[in-house]
Amino acid sequence: MLIVLGLILIAVGLLVTLGNRLPIRIGRLPGDIVIRGKNSVFYFPIVTSLLLSLLVTALLWLFGRR
Question: Which among 52, 18, 4 has a CA at the least distance from the CA of 32?
Answer without folding.
Answer: 52
